[in-house]
Amino acid sequence: MKSLVKTPPATGMYHPTRRSLGLMLLGALSLAACATQDYPPLASVAPPGSTPDQPYTLGTGDRIRVNVYGYDDLSGEYDIDATGAFPMPLVGTVKVAGKTPSAIESELTKSLKSGGYLTDPRVGVQVVTYRPFFILGEVKTPGRYPYENGMSVLEAVATAGGYTFRANENKIIVHRGGASAPGALAQPTDAILPGDVIDVQQRFF
C-alpha cells in the first residue's frame, strides 16, 4: 500500500555542485601555494645600491646635515623630498636618492669649486634622521614608524604593539627597497633597514 505521508524536504543542508567544489579546491590550492612559497633568507639580501665600505644609501624621507666647513650660511639640515632631492644655496637642486653620503660630499665639493663659489671647499654629509620603516599584517598596530639605528625585526614588531593571535611568528617577510621589491624570510634577530616593508604573515590553523 502506498504511503500517504510525504517526506518533508531536507532543510539546512548544503549540497555542493561540481563548480563550487572546484572553486573550493582552487582556493585551498592557492592558500597552500602561499603557505609553501620559498623566500631567500633576509641575511642574504643586500641593501639596494650597497657597497662593502658604505652600505647606506639616501632616499626620500631621510634628513641630512650638510656642513661646508667655515661657511655657516651654506651649511644646514635638509629633508630629502619625494623626488629624492633637496635644494641647497648656490648649488641648486641636489639629487641624492640611491647615493651614499660620501658620494654626495664629493659631488657638492666639485659643484662649489667648479662653480667658482669656493676655491677649496670641504664638505661633510651626515644622516640626521633615517627614513621610516613600514610594518603590515598580523601586528596590533600596523603602520609607519621611525627607524632607529640597529633595530631588529623583533624590535620593529614590538614597536607596532606586538603580534596578534593569528600571527605566524616563523613567517615574517621583509621587502627591502620598498613594497614592490622581492620578499625575503626574516628571523626575529635580523636587522632591518630604513625603508624596509615588514609583512607578518597569518598562520592557518
TrEMBL record:
Keyword flag Signal: yes
The Soluble ligand binding domain, residue ranges: 133-180
Domain Polysaccharide export protein N-terminal: 52-127
InterPro entries for this protein: Poly_export, Poly_export_N, Soluble_ligand-bd
Keywords noted in UniProt: Signal
Signal sequence, renumbered to the chain: 1-35
GO MF assignments: polysaccharide transmembrane transporter activity
Keyword Signal set for record: yes
Superkingdom: Bacteria
Name of the protein described by the UniProt record: Polysaccharide export outer membrane protein
